[in-house]
Amino acid sequence: MSLKLAPTNRHDSPKAERRKALGAYYTPPALVDHLIQTALGPVIEAACRQDDPARALSALRICDPACGAGAFLIPAARRLGEALAGVSGFDVDFALKEVTARCIVGWDIDPEAVRVCRRALARQAELDDSAVQVSCRDALWVGGEGMFDAILTNPPFLNAIERRKDSDACLRAAYPELGGTADCALYFLALADRLVRPDGWIGMVLPRAALGATAGDRLRRDMRHRPREIGLLAQSDSFDDADIYVTLATLGPAGPATVVDGARHASGELGDPNWWRGARTLLDGPATAQARSPSAAFQVEAGMTVGEAYIAARLAADEPAGAGQRLITTGMIGLGECRWGERPFRFLGRRLSYPRLAPSYEAPASLVRRLERSTRPKLIVAGLARCLRCYLDELGECQGFVSTYHVTVDGDALDQLRALQTFLHGEQASERFRRELGASALGGGSITLTKRFLQDLIR
């Protein structure tokens, strides 16, 4: 699936600024066409095999629960109308009116998007706006199961931090199959699994991270609808104003899955609840022998919490020498080296060349204790990188910033820390890192390291 994304034409779409705030991005036509083929196509084919295909097609229900300006619903209505005309003897215009009024359903929380979508569907079918089933509502609170034959959607890409805090507890109660850090796209995936009939199909644009995010483990394991095609887009600029890798996910009744990555493709059972790891296994074959770390009692802790990092950035001094621990960001960590002092680095709004932090009465007790613990030998591991990177702080003079991890060992044994550093920089460890966590890669290719993965890797 080598998709060539043409320039987008969005003159009739809601304003980009508001859509971005909602986590919504205009879906390129090439992506829409592909998901209509893979997810709506089987639904239409099944209806056409019925004794009365015209009646079966007219009874279909197709929904986009985050419809935006109608990127999916408009071509879906055309495709369904053409199919109805082909089996009924109706002319295409009449068939399009029928399916638009009967079969197409759209929801969105943005009133302007709803207005644009409703008007576009009505104009295409030569209907009054009131005849179109597009309404302003938050789909995540829609009850019921098995209401639709297909769902086609590009859900909002909002992470747990960007969501409204007052709705988080209610969402977690409504979707117990998801963890608390699940992003909005995973909630829409759970919603689609509920709303689509058991023999129906789902076509979704998902952030690649949704394939392997820990918060979605239970959902991906227990879903009624199983992956039938996973399309891994190679570029991270598929959407204007969004530097993110996306996946075209087609789900349907149980069956073998096809994984497509550019010109490469493979088919087989995708039994792993980590769909990214399962997809890489189908494409690349089984992993090499399990990477094993040196046998020692290692401990892992985060460099800092986000809250502590904001305080540390405010209190940090910029001094080549002096009191306090050297603050180390993930970007300073190379393969066995630390770039502290080589150039200015960003610290949450500040640029510092020699960032240091000493215990202070202004610092919370948790941060003071963290600084005290950091005065021992340790590995500081980058939390965001293309491959595993760590630096051995032999003298215990450094403190990792946010998005880093400290690894210590009983007895502060430097030989054990050096052996672990060699292991982490080896190809086997990095292969496992990419295979298990690569779905989280950002536009630049950097992968987010998790504490759980690091603990499992080195135990």
TrEMBL record:
It catalyses: a 2'-deoxyadenosine in DNA + S-adenosyl-L-methionine = an N(6)-methyl-2'-deoxyadenosine in DNA + S-adenosyl-L-homocysteine + H(+). Its EC number is 2.1.1.72. Residues 18-214 form the DNA methylase adenine-specific domain. GO terms for molecular function: DNA binding; N-methyltransferase activity; site-specific DNA-methyltransferase (adenine-specific) activity. One of its GO terms (biological process) is methylation. Keywords: Methyltransferase, Restriction system, Transferase. It holds the Pfam family N6_Mtase. PANTHER family: DNA METHYLTRANSFERASE A, DNA METHYLTRANSFERASE YEEA-RELATED. This is site-specific DNA-methyltransferase (adenine-specific). It comes from Fimbriimonas ginsengisoli.
